[in-house]
Amino acid sequence: MGLGASFAQDRPNIIIILVDDMGYSDLGCTGSEIETPNLDRMAREGTLFTNFYNTSRCCPSRTSLLTGQYQWDAGMGHMDTSKSTFPEYQGFINDQSITIAEVLRDHGYQTFMSGKWHVGSRERTMWPDYRGFDQFYGVPNGGGIYFYPSKYWDRPVFWNGEQVHPDDSWYSTDAFTEYAIDYIKDKREKNKPFFMYMAYVAPHFPLMAKPEDIQKYKDKYQVGYAAIRKARFEKQKAIGLMPAHLEMSEGVHPDWETVEDPDQEAMEMAVYAAMVDCMDQNIGLLMDTLREEEIAENTVVMFLSDNGACESDYNKTPDAELGGRDSNVAYGIWNNVSNTPYRMHKAREHEGGIITPLVMSWPAGLKNPGKRITDTAHINDLMPTCLELAGASYPESYEGVTLDPLDGQSILPLLKGESRMEVPVYYWEHEGNRAVRQGDWKLVALHQGGWELYNLKSDPIELDNRIASNPEKASELRTLYQDWAGKHGVQSWPLSR
């Protein structure tokens, strides 16, 4: 694969789209029955990374994306609500870390963000416009908001530091896109490149969607968990995403015939599908805008999820209309379908919690449409990738503070069909769940559980635990993990102070 000549001549615009709690198989191009034609087109005309990793939880993933570091180095070892005395768990991005926006702005880029920040909101100086973004529309803290105002989640909306109060027609997925489109059309200097970070709340619970989107899926899921999961797995095999000989992990769902309220369960997944569908519609509007502005050719667009699908099955509003503005419900067991064919879910370090599709579009630069890249890569690789795209270097210091080094490395060599300078070893930890991957081997454990060892080349779904037959490899990986955890200040869970 070659990179286009424009890379050497004109620095590209860069857009990163991050979605919230979306499972690996929730796109058409990764096996889903949900209609995602715009992201499918991006994968068909661009590149799909099939082994891309996040950190398994929202705040840490956002931190690694923005800084190119493991989250502990940036002070976000857990969530933004943490107030630990351990500096690695302070709950906001520290001064020893620099964001993509801060570096690119210093290298001539305009910077804009819309959506959910969630990497420090307690103080005004933690917000996006203090961390490199010229303009920001959205929610400084976490998700939970679709219709405004959120009845159950305190999520005020801001535009450049001033709180705004949307009307009853407001829906966050649409609004975040509308402000992004308005920026591209009217609020940027058109002779300078821009960096845009769009962080949708969707499809994170609570289940809330527009009626016309729900209508498309209202009867789709009456067949139950197993049937949809099997269909997704067979589609993954048919499109070459999974090997034909692979067997799927056993479902964690009950037999559909035993479900107490199948209509409720089917409608939960219908609303979730509507939320994903709406997200894709909005990405289509954004991509259309790039084409209308005649900047699509040299705009890099990257799409990924912050973690695997979420297991939560609470229903705080059993009497409310499911999917409406008074609904505060999650889709529970369907997470096992969203994560097809992988095991586990959000906040776990098994594949179901940490693997995401990375869909990438760049017409001027990607000259092998539909290329799938099976090499592993990590969310902390996005910062160095953006720097290389922009012709920028990572500074040793910023505003008088010496910076911690990057942990990630650019994925551009993979786009060129080359090997990276160094074969990466990846590490994960969240709330005591932990893992390390070196080459094809992965050592993983649940909190307070024993280590498990898998060869992901032959066993990508983590079904054949080889810890007993490969004690030397397990010991080697365990030592790597312990050394890494000590270096980065990873603490035992729960935190002692």
N-to-C SSE string, H for helix and E for strand: HEHEHHEEEEHEHHHEHHEEEHEEHEEEEH
Give the CATH H-level superfamily of the largest domain: Alkaline Phosphatase, subunit A
Number of domains: 2
- The dominant shape is globular
Strand tally is 17
Average pLDDT for all residues: 95
Q: In the CATH hierarchy, what is the architecture of the largest domain at level 2? A: 3-Layer(aba) Sandwich
Helix-strand makeup class:
alpha/beta
Helix content percent band: 25-40%
So what's the CATH class of the largest domain?
Alpha Beta
CATH names the topology of the largest domain as Alkaline Phosphatase, subunit A
By DSSP (H or I, 4+ residues per run), the number of helices equals 13
Poorly predicted regions: 1-9
Q: Distance between the terminal alpha carbons, to the nearest Å? A: 50 Å
Please state the oligomeric state of the protein chains shown: single chain
- How much β-strand is present in the residues? 15-25%
- Rg, please? 21 Å
Compose a concise summary of this entry.
The chain has 497 residues and is an alpha/beta fold. The chain is built from 13 helices and 17 strands. It folds into two domains: 6-422, Alkaline Phosphatase, subunit A (3-Layer(aba) Sandwich), CATH 3.40.720; 425-497, Arylsulfatase, C-terminal domain (2-Layer Sandwich).
